[in-house]
């Protein structure tokens, strides 16, 4: 019986090890827009820094694709839009898009410990769109990740991605090399698996 348990444990561990992908940060790409303005997303164990231009690119794409999809609330892979009417989705997107396009709006710092109103009059209105593209950008190693509570606070050089099954679909979980979680995709998209518009 002990031998069987040890064998099962070894199989589970090997499957877990195979399911992990190490993502190494790449050197700066001269083709990529220079980060002149950033978005900060603070979790419990790390801070993720995104180039504002990445969100602008995504929102520009949505500005074209959402009308073609008749402003379906399911067009954006985020749980908060799941039950939106077409009118709600159109209004929310236009409000968020205008806020982002206004370069005087600099309050783009978010924390997972803070509540943001869905129809906020501030940068909180952008949060669902940021969380929608976060997993893709992390998988592409296009974001800076800084572990909290360590010295010196420098961007990590690599982190891990694993897949977790939820309701028959695989979602990505990103972890620091010490196992601490950076971002869990299923937190925001657990009830549906929708097409992602940002290229992987």
Please render the helix and strand layout as text.
Blueprint: H1 2-19, E1 21-24, E2 38-42, E3 46-51, H2 52-68, H3 86-101, E4 109-111, H4 127-139, E5 144-147, E6 158-166, E7 169-175, E8 181-184, H5 186-189
Parallel strand pairs: 2-4
Antiparallel strand pairs: 1-6, 2-3, 3-5, 6-7, 7-8
The largest sheet is: 4 strands, antiparallel
Strand and helix order: HEEEHHEHEEEEH
Contiguous runs where pLDDT drops below 50 for at least 5 residues: 10-18, 193-200
Spatial sequence of strands, sheet with the most strands: 1-6-7-8
Task: Describe what this molecule looks like in 3D.
Residues 10-18 and 193-200 have low confidence and may be disordered. The protein has five helices and eight strands; from the N terminus they run αβββααβαββββα. Helices cover 34% and strands 21% of the residues. Helix 2 packs antiparallel against helix 3 (86-101). The protein has 200 residues and is of the alpha+beta class.
């Amino acid at each position: 019986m002990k031998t069987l348990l040890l064998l099962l444990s070894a199989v589970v561990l090997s499957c877990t090890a195979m399911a992990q992908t190490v993502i190494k940060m790449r050197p700066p790409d001269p083709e990529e827009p220079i980060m002149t303005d950033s978005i900060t997303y603070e979790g419990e164990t790390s801070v993720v820094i995104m180039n504002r231009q990445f969100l602008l690119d995504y929102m520009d794409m949505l500005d074209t694709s959402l009308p073609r999809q008749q402003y379906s609330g399911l067009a954006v892979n985020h749980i908060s839009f799941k039950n939106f009417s077409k009118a709600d989705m159109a209004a929310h997107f236009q409000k968020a898009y205008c806020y982002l396009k206004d370069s005087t709006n600099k309050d783009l710092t978010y924390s997972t410990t803070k509540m943001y109103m869905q129809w906020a009059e501030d940068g909180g209105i952008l949060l669902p769109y940021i969380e929608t593209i976060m997993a893709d950008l992390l998988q592409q190693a296009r974001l800076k990740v800084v572990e909290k509570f360590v010295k010196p606070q420098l961007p990590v050089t690599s982190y891990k991605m694993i897949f977790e099954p939820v309701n028959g679909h695989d979602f990505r979980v990103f972890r620091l090399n010490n196992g601490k979680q950076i971002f869990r995709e299923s937190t925001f998209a657990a009830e549906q698996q929708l097409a992602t518009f940002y290229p992987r």
